[in-house]
Write a structure and sequence with these properties.
The protein is an alpha/beta fold. The protein folds into 2 domains: 140 residues, 3-Layer(aba) Sandwich (Rossmann fold); 190 residues, Rossmann fold. The protein is 38% helix and 16% strand. A 6-stranded parallel β-sheet has the order 3-2-1-4-5-6, with helices on both faces. A 6-stranded parallel β-sheet has the order 9-8-7-10-11-12, with helices on both faces.
């Protein structure tokens, strides 16, 4: 059987699809699995051993996208897939699902597009406290004759296999930065794709300073998205100024991509960051994670992995405006993050660092 999975973006959402190829191979041995994804998130699945063919497309706009998609439609149709599963549910992915001409096409019930599928699964519009992996598992269970079991983070954890060459390169960069085996390596991701998920800069500064002051052997690598590089630089500068002689505990590691981040976190004792793509990359490792949740719910997007690995999800409970659609902050002050106290994050981080100490 030939199966095509479609999940175009975003990084965290693509991470949440990684348990599915393994489950499909386990359910139907001998199945060939292709995966269609846009360029930005492609590194997440580039080394997945259960994906036989990775189809990477650019995110063009206007006429260029129309031309790209027409060409891609011809390629997908000629592949003659037996089953296509649209894990994305957007206009582009649903049209491409239809364009394959596959006899079985599974997707969510979406107004105006459900007719493009042969089997649909209800997906309520409201934000539910139900994990994204479980929501996607609904699509597998809708396949006629599905012999697999339910979604289980222990058996079907998210996965991003380590690239040995990139891991070796990261080891070399760490040595060049003065980080040795004697140090306790921590990764802190200090940015987010939108203001609704950004913990305040002074709060991150306080966290970094506390972690280094508690143990001078700690070395913290700061991670951020390109659009937040200036904010990351301000956090680094403020933390180093506060640390004085211990400023070397904050490591300037430069830029790195998703595969490099995966290798870096895998060598670390702790990852701290908001509910963004890098947190979910971190979840594919055996490294403890402290996640900071503002408008989103841990029940929906906490790391999906072996529960034996420490995973602490911090949120401000009791706010009537949570969760939200992240379009407008109703109170206007982003209180779901601004009231998340640094001392609580420090406490959670110290607790996670004691694991296998």
């Amino acid at each position: 059987m030939k199966i095509l999975l479609i999940r175009l973006r975003l990084i965290g959402d693509v991470v949440f699809t990684t348990p599915l190829p393994k489950a499909l191979k386990r359910a139907w041995p001998g199945t060939t699995i292709s995966y269609l994804v846009e360029e930005a998130a492609a590194p997440v699945v580039a080394t997945n051993p259960f994906i036989d063919e990775l189809i990477v497309i650019r995110r063009a706009r206007g006429v260029e996208r129309v031309i790209d998609d027409i060409r891609l439609a011809g390629r997908l149709r000629s592949a003659r897939y037996d089953l296509v599963i649209d894990l994305h549910g957007g206009p582009r992915s649903s049209w491409l699902t239809l364009a394959t001409g596959a006899p079985r096409r599974v997707g969510y019930t979406i107004k105006g597009r459900s007719w493009m599928y042969t089997t649909t699964v209800a997906r309520p519009r409201e934000l539910r406290a139900r994990h994204s992996v479980v929501n996607q598992w609904d699509l597998l269970e809708a396949i006629e004759g599905w012999p697999g079991g339910p979604a289980d983070p222990e058996r079907n954890a998210v996965d991003m296999p380590l690239d040995p060459a990139i891991d070796a390169a990261i080891a070399h960069r760490l040595r060049d930065a003065g980080v040795t085996e004697a140090h306790t390596l921590i990764v802190a991701h200090v940015s987010a794709g939108n203001p609704f998920r950004r913990w305040p800069e002074p709060a991150f500064t306080e966290l970094l300073v506390s972690l280094v002051q508690t143990d001078p052997a700690r070395r913290i690598v700061i991670s951020s998205g390109p659009s937040d590089r200036d904010a990351a630089n301000r956090i680094v500068a403020a933390a180093r100024a506060a640390l004085g002689p211990a400023a070397g505990g904050i490591v300037d590691f430069g830029d790195f991509g998703l595969a490099e981040l995966r290798a870096l976190v895998g060598r670390s004792r702790l990852f701290v960051g908001g509910d963004t793509g890098p947190l979910h990359i971190a979840a594919t490792t055996a490294t403890p994670v402290v996640g900071l949740y503002g408008p989103t719910l841990p029940a929906r997007s906490a790391p999906w992995r072996d529960p034996a690995i420490p995973t602490v999800s911090l949120e401000v409970a009791g706010l009537p405006c949570r969760p939200c659609e992240q379009r407008v902050c109703a109170p206007g002050d982003f209180r779901c993050l601004t009231t998340l106290r640094p001392q609580d994050v420090v406490s959670a981080a110290e607790q996670a660092l004691r694991w296998r100490a």
